[in-house]
């Protein structure tokens, strides 16, 4: 679901669950965003590097094999400290430790979440109604 789309309109979704990436991508398109999807942190950071100027938000699953969501968020924030990051996890928000204060998540959403709830949060962190 990689697409050049409009500049400054990409949302990067990093999650090891393919079906979830696909469904979130469909909803993002319906909301006027261009989804970029990655199956793991390493792929997510590479996609972010490639599309960084146009990425307005990153949604990352906290628990993934290999490079987890915390490490992925830190790497992405190292490239662009201002990009909003939404951490998704089935664990309570208090367990999403590990990110330093300077690169902490912009927002947290607990899994399972509704897609309308996620889209509201995306619009909120990117400053769109």
Terminal Cα separation, in Å? 25 Å
CATH superfamily: Response regulator
Strand runs, count: 5
Shape: globular
* Sequence stretches where pLDDT stays below 50 over 5 or more residues: 1-5
What series of H and E elements makes up the topology?
A: EHEHEHEEH
What is the mean pLDDT? 87
Decide which structural class fits the backbone: alpha/beta
Number of domains: 1
Stated plainly, the CATH topology is called Rossmann fold
Cα-based radius of gyration, to the nearest Å: 13 Å
Helices and strands in order:
Layout: E1 10-14, H1 18-30, E2 34-38, H2 41-51, E3 55-61, H3 69-79, E4 85-89, E5 107-110, H4 115-126
Parallel strand pairs: 1-2, 1-3, 3-4, 4-5
Write up what this structure looks like:
The protein is 36% helix and 20% strand. Strands 2-1-3-4-5 form a five-stranded parallel sheet, with helices on both faces. The protein has a single domain, classed as Response regulator (Rossmann fold). The protein is globular. It is α/β, with parallel strands linked by helices and 129 residues long. It has four helices and five strands, in the order E-H-E-H-E-H-E-E-H. Helix 1 (18-30) links the parallel strand 1 (10-14) and strand 2 (34-38). Helix 2 (41-51) runs parallel beside helix 3. The protein has helices at 18-30, 41-51, 69-79, 115-126, and strands spanning 10-14, 34-38, 55-61, 85-89, 107-110.
């Amino acid at each position: 679901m990689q697409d050049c789309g409009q500049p400054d309109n990409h949302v990067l979704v990093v999650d090891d669950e393919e079906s979830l990436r696909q469904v979130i991508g469909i909803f993002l398109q319906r909301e006027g965003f261009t989804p970029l999807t990655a199956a793991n942190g390493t792929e997510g950071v590479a996609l972010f590097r490639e599309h960084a100027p146009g990425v307005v938000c990153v949604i990352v699953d906290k628990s993934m094999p290999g490079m987890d969501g915390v490490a992925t968020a830190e790497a992405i924030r190292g490239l662009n400290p201002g990009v909003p990051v939404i951490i998704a996890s089935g664990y309570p928000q208090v367990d999403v430790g590990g990110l330093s204060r300077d690169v902490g998540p912009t927002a947290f959403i607990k899994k399972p979440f509704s897609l309308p709830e996620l889209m509201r949060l995306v619009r909120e962190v990117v400053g769109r109604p």
